[in-house]
Amino acid sequence: MKKIAVLTSGGDSPGMNACLRAVVRTAVYHKIEVMGIMHGYNGMIKDEFIKMDAKSVASIINRGGTILKTARSTEFMTTEGRDKALTNLKKHGIEGVVIIGGDGSFKGALEFSTMCDIPFVGCPGTIDNDLQGTDFTIGYDTAINTVVEAVDKIRDTAESHDRLFFVEVMGRDAGLIALRAGIGVGAESILIPETKTDIDDLVVRLKNKRKSKTSKIIIVAEGDEAGGAFKIAQEVKKQLPEYDTRVTILGHIQRGGNPSAMDRVNSSRMGFAAVEALMQGKKNCMVGIINKKIEYTPFENAVKHNPELDPDLMRMVNILSM
Ligand code: F6P
Of the residues 147, 172, 177, 180, which should be mutated to test ligand 1's pocket, given the most ligand atoms within 8 Å of the CB? Predict the structure, then answer.
């Protein structure tokens, strides 16, 4: 393998830069030329290829976002778009591609593989942690820490005013950010898409909390079937009018910030493994870390979100927040 390309795609996540640094430097070490593709698949289509070397990724391991920029490309979903992308990959003599992105990006790569023989290897870059084949995606740990830090602050004001807060967190269709962050902040309840949300049951549980407990935090995953934090807060208020309720949507703050140590380490390991995987002839698979070991999962399996969560965790949340 003489020349590879690397791109970041989909929603950015903290640790993408650390992964990019590992990809570029591993390739340079093995005397493989590396080109960065700006703006995800859009840049592949519009020929935004730039030469990269060890220096071009200096001092980025600690930075959130992605220096290659990113996009959710609608053009790449079309055959014409993919044709243009292939022409540009060939023009630059690219023999392998590392794509750092989430399930949409891998679905795109899978589609592309039916018309293109250039191997793609993925690194799981998304805060949502909704990919099979890895215990942690790049950015998930940082996002959870961001939520925990924010909710700790909300707890201060909630306690001062004896209020009930509904805090909505990201995760698209997955409740993993909500679950882990909710445990971390000692939430009174966590509402996630993977389990049925029953407002009556939530009301009963709130009533059953210790009388001395005046502030309460409910973490709501944005994909929860009950329709988001505002709607749930409204429903609860109807049954518990005595509560002073407030809603906070944390939003894109969860995608920014310096990556945590864990995200930096995992991203570096995955970027390093992705280049070596291409050199070994692997293709159309995602690098992941399972039980601390590097594993490879075919794209088609990686994108299957598994809605099964450990029921013991939810049971624990209810017990610990008595
Ligand atoms: O997939 C990452 C994510 O942050 C989701 O949690 C969220 O639903 C979505 O992206 C938001 O996307 P956008 O930045 O395009 O609004």
Answer: 172
